[in-house]
Amino acid sequence: MTTDRTLTQATTDGRPPAAGTPVSSKDVSSVSEPESSAEQHTTGNQADVVLARSQARLAELAGIQAGNPTDDREVVFALEDVRVSYNGKDAIREVTMDVHRNLVTAFIGPSGCGKTTLLRSLNRMNDLIPGARVSGGIRYHGHDVNGRDVDAVEVRRRIGMVFQRPNPFPKSIFDNVAFAPRLNGVRRGELDDLVELSLRRAALWDEVKDKLKKSAFTLSGGQQQRLCIARAIAVKPDVILMDEPASALDPIATQRIEDLVQTLKDTYTIVIVTHNMQQAARVADMTAFYSVEVADSGDRCGILVEYAPTSQLFVRPADQRTEDYVTGRFG
Predict the structure, then answer these.
(1) Alpha-carbon distance 246 to 249, whole Å?
(2) How far apart are CA 165 and CA 246, in angstroms?
(3) In whole angstroms, what is the distance from residue 327 CA to residue 318 CA?
């Protein structure tokens, strides 16, 4: 398979620089001589070279996996015709997909396509938003997440969430991790071991073991985000949802989060929302691409366009809309 169909990004925000941008009439009037056809051809060739190189890099990041990573893996979430609306207006609709155990599943797509809305539906965080309504089926290990007899608090214990920006409690590092276990009745004698284990799994123990009584706000942004991951781990979840966990971090801190995600998937099932396609290519086993449909009325609604192994989605997408997005033609 050639690599001239997809590309990665050449800029830090995940999108390549625009090529062939139209020139306004004002700009044209300021040019003394029009660009020759030869110059235009050269410019086009240069853009093609940039695209081809970027495509090759994204293909390298995604890798060429043998077979389907979901083969023989238990289904953790089964979504069927899921629709989420706010005050009667659909934010995302007709989502049908499975999420499998101990894989990293990434949600990508342009802003406003409903990625975070769908993510929050997996552990009923949308229950906390007035006017939000979820329909269709979201089954977690075969159980209806939105069933009347289901305890939303227990759902969120089993399905933890890490938010876009670090949000440590105004407490010590130790108490941030111990807070929820204390509420759940974990005895004091067990807390020390639980806090240490959680911080180790979040790759933070060695950096904070001598200052556990200090405020969490003394940590750097990247450390605070790993502390929030440790806090999520401390309640022994089955799934960790991550809403752009590295978007507010510098490149070094981002790499540490990505490395941590790869380690955590051995124990947890992870679903991550990201605007950075290179990040999705680096960390995800499966990737779902969402886009936006605009009705004649102007209302916008997110839809699931394609869901596939990451290498397949980036290297040989099945849908033209996916290819247009990952090659930077829109988004």
Answers:
(1) 5
(2) 8
(3) 14
Rounded to whole angstroms, the maximal C-alpha distance in the chain is 81
The tens place of each residue's pLDDT in the chain, 331 residues long, gives: 444 443 333 344 444 444 444 444 444 344 444 455 555 555 555 555 555 555 555 555 555 444 578 778 899 999 999 999 999 999 999 999 999 999 999 999 999 999 999 999 999 999 999 999 999 999 999 999 999 999 999 999 999 999 999 999 999 999 999 999 998 889 888 999 999 999 999 999 999 999 999 999 999 999 999 999 999 999 999 999 999 999 888 899 999 999 999 999 999 999 999 998 899 999 999 999 999 999 888 889 999 999 999 999 999 999 999 999 988 876 5
- Looking up tokens 């997005």 gives 325
**For the chain, what are the domain ranges?**
75-326
* 75-326: in CATH 3.40.50.300: yes
Measured in whole angstroms, the distance separating CA 240 from the mean position of its chain's CA atoms is 11
What DSSP character marks residue 197? H
- Separation of alpha carbons 286 and 308, rounded Å: 6
Q: Collapsing DSSP states into helix, strand and coil, what is residue 50?
A: helix
Nearest to 260, CA basis, from 217, 201, 208, 215: 201
Q: Name the nearest CA neighbour of 131 among 90, 82, 79.
A: 90
Evaluated on CA atoms 257, 258, 264, 269, the torsion sign reads positive
